[in-house]
Design goal:
By secondary structure, the protein is an alpha+beta fold. It has two helices and nine strands, in the order E-H-E-E-E-E-H-E-E-E-E. It has one domain: 2,3-Dihydroxybiphenyl 1,2-Dioxygenase, domain 1 (Roll), CATH 3.10.180.10.
């Protein structure tokens, strides 16, 4: 029998300049830094940790999957990230409806061009 998997615990993203990435995710996105060790950094993203590290092998040296962060007010998040100097890819826009819920989103890029989605789910 296969083991029962629990919730997602951690996501690893590779960076060429971890200290620069730490500063951006801490100062621009406002994520809480949990700890740093051996050239790696760990941030709290709710119940999931974000691990930053340099690529250990060439096969790991590529852009990450898209990280999506949930917010309660997408317009306020867009304004705050713009004020903090984030590279904004687009304005908040409706991407879909799930019954009585609307999904709104916009995207930013970090210092190494990783794409980050900012999303709000609101009543239609």
């Amino acid at each position: 029998m296969a083991p029962e998997l629990g919730p997602l615990a951690q996501v690893a993203v590779t960076f060429h300049d971890v200290p620069r990435a730490v500063a951006w995710y801490r100062d621009v996105l406002g994520l809480p830094l949990v700890f740093e060790t051996n050239g790696m950094a760990f941030f709290a993203m709710g119940d999931v940790r974000l691990m930053m590290t340099v690529p250990e092998k060439a096969e790991f040296d590529h852009p990450a999957s898209v990280l999506y962060f949930r917010v309660t007010d997408i317009s306020a998040a867009h304004a705050a990230l713009t004020a903090r100097g984030a590279t904004i890819e687009d304005d908040p826009h409706l991407v879909g409806r799930m019954g009585s819920t609307e999904i709104w989103m916009f995207f930013v890029r970090d210092e190494e061009r990783h794409l980050i989605g900012i999303t709000e789910e609101r009543a239609a």
